[in-house]
Structure prediction request, 172 residues.
Amino acid sequence: MSEIIKNITFHGAPLTLEGSQPDAGSKAPDFKICANDLSEKKLADYQGKVLIISTVPSLDTGVCDMATRRFNSEAAALSDDIRILVISADLPFAQARWCGAAGAERLETLSDYKDVSFAQAYGVLISELRLLARSVWVINREGSIVYKEIVSELTNEPNYEKALQAAKDSAC
Prediction:
């Protein structure tokens, strides 16, 4: 596992990200994560769809809650060919409980708690916390990354407009 020193912070304190961070234009790395029903999910399960993947440290925090609710509300205006996945290291049971309480039915929450497979493949595993950094990835139907944002300060929100536009452009 490679270690990347990245200019991200939490309340100004620097953090270390682990893994290999793919660039926009490259093939999206595969991953193995857990659905809320404990079934395994991989990139291939979404073949032929445009994906917006939002990673968050924990759905039980203010900014993560706000970002996930925003993506859930934006999903109503998107084509059926676009899927929104929210990945965290929260346990699947906690994710399902959060979705029920938040009324989040237009996106899919997935857990990377077991193997941190996604976090390492996309270089967003925070070494100090064993949580995922806030990031947004858009993967086109062909499985290539067309948009990537690693949010530099964990307490900031991502650029929703750019991610949504990249997904819409890929769905055309």
User: Anything to note?
Assistant: The mean pLDDT is 94. The radius of gyration is 15 Å. The chain has one domain: 3-171. The chain is about 25% helix and 30% strand.
